[in-house]
Structure formats: structure tokens, C-alpha cells
Design brief:
Pfam families: HAD_2. One of its GO terms (molecular function) is hydrolase activity. Belongs to the HAD-like hydrolase superfamily. CbbY/CbbZ/Gph/YieH family. This protein is 46% helix and 9% strand. With 211 residues, it is mainly alpha-helical. It has two domains: 71 residues, Orthogonal Bundle (DNA polymerase, domain 1), CATH 1.10.150; 131 residues, HAD superfamily/HAD-like (Rossmann fold, 3-Layer(aba) Sandwich). The protein has a three-stranded parallel β-sheet. The longest helix is centred in the first third of the chain and has 19 residues. It is globular.
Length: 211
Amino acid sequence: MDGLLIDSEPHWRTALVNVFRGLGIEMTRDMAKQTMGLRTADVVAYWYNIYKWEGPSVEEVCDRILEEVDRLVWAEGKIMPGVNELVKWVKANNLKLGLASSSPMSLIKSFVKKIGIENELEALRSGSEEAYGKPHPVVYIETAKELGLKPEECLAFEDSFTGLLAAKAARMKAVAVPEEADRKDPRFCIADVQLASLLDFNDEVFEKIIS
């Protein structure tokens, strides 16, 4: 969801920088990018193991980050190009649409509402509510189950390598749509197709994936 449907990834990084600065930690945007695709609790736990700050608990820091991200996205977030076109394509082909995100369900529902696709989704799953987060495949497996499908019958769209690993581990076909700075990352070669934008997805690409 983040970075794929809405340009929230930069706001996540800003939120991390802002919140950690309040803890006396000079977090950079490049440092924040290292944990892209992970659950918020896993992100905070990762940095706590390095910096061992005093004061707010991991849970309290998570809450601060989530509040800041939600505020920033509603104030400045924009829908990514091709989202509406992809939703229309899914519906025109009588396919099911679900969302599997590492974000907490509260943020998923908030962002989905901002994007305007809350009535188009037939399944919503949060990795924060599963035993393991991405790159473990459980959130994708459970999303497929909620859609009434087998994972191998699903096509996942991902912008992060962590999420792509999760989709492929679930035995799904996968389309990678990494941000511009990551498009030459060789790790994305595990995707069935890599696109520069969701706008590039069409019938021809779909046929190539399933053939």
C-alpha cells in the first residue's frame, strides 16, 4: 500500500526522522529507508536494539510514528499514478481485489479512505495482526484465503523488496513497481514483471505474466 497506492513512503521516513529526533537520535532518511516494508513495531524494535533510548517504550514510540504518518499523509499525501486505472481494470475483468499491508489496520483504513477505494476492496489484511510480518508470507496467504482464492491464483503488486519476498514466498505471481531510486536494484529480478508505474499495467502485461 505505502508507496504503491499512495505516496506515503516519504512521509513514513519523515515521521521516523521527526519522532526519533525527539528521542535524541539523529535518524536520516536513508537510515529510515533501511526498514521499508516492515511492520511499525518491527521497525521501532530494530532501532531500539541499536540505540537503547530511555523514556518512551517501543509501543509509545510506535503510536507517535503512526500519528505523525497519518497526519502527514492526510495533509500532503497523493494517490499514485495508475491506481484508479488498475482498480477499473480489475473490476472490468471480474477479478477480486484485496489489500495486504504491513501497516496497522487503523492506518490501512485511513489511507484507503483517502485514496477512495474503500468500497472496491473485498479483503483487508494487516501484517501487524499476524504472527509474523513481511517478508514472511502469512499476510498474503491470509488475504488470499479471505478472497476465497489459493495464493497461486493471485497476482500481487509490490513496491518494496521486503513485500516482494513475501508475495513470492506465498507462491503468488508478482509485479514489482519500485520507486525510481530502486529500479536498478537486481533483487527485483525475482518479480514476474517490473514496471516503472502502475500506469504501465495492461492486458498485454497480464497475459505475459500468466502465460
